[in-house]
Amino acid sequence: VQLQASGGGLVQAGGSLRLSCAASGLTFSSYSMGWFRQAPGKEREFVGGITWPSGITYYSDSVKGRFAISSDNAKNTVYLQMNSLKPEDTAVYYCAARVGGVVVSTTPRDYHYWGQGTQVTVSS
């Protein structure tokens, strides 16, 4: 299984970015995809996730209402649409896959595969 995250960059506060996570080799009957972020000196933090095939999404309180996760199963890609970005959203964002995850877990150690991370910087 390989996960490739992309789409990060520099944006002003209030702006938007869309991250992508392209997955290959995910042939399991059920799994969940999570997005996490890690700022310098801080622990990796759960952002949101989506289950497959049910498509149920779940978000942390810090991003609820601003971020949205979607998937394109034909492209094996999960997206993280980030709106109304704030400087505190600055971090390296990672996508991760949890095999057999019928519910989204907020715990990084529950995930089996990780992408390489993409930097998101929000200027004030």
Instruction: Work out the helicity level.
Output: under 10%
- Compute the separation of the termini in Å: 37 Å
Give the helix tally: 0
The oligomeric state of the chains shown is: single chain
Q: Report on the biggest sheet.
A: 7 strands, mixed
The overall pLDDT, averaged over residues, is 94
Rg, alpha carbons = 13 Å
Number of strands: 11
Classification by helices and strands: mainly beta
Strand content: over 45%
Structure overview:
- The protein has 124 residues and is an all-beta fold.
- Helix content is 0%, strand content 52%.
- It contains no helices and eleven strands.
- The chain has strands spanning 2-6, 9-12, 17-24, 31-38, 45-52, 57-59, 67-72, 77-82, 91-99, 113-114, 118-123.
- Strand 7 (67-72) and strand 8 form a beta hairpin.
- The model has no long low-confidence stretch (mean pLDDT 94).
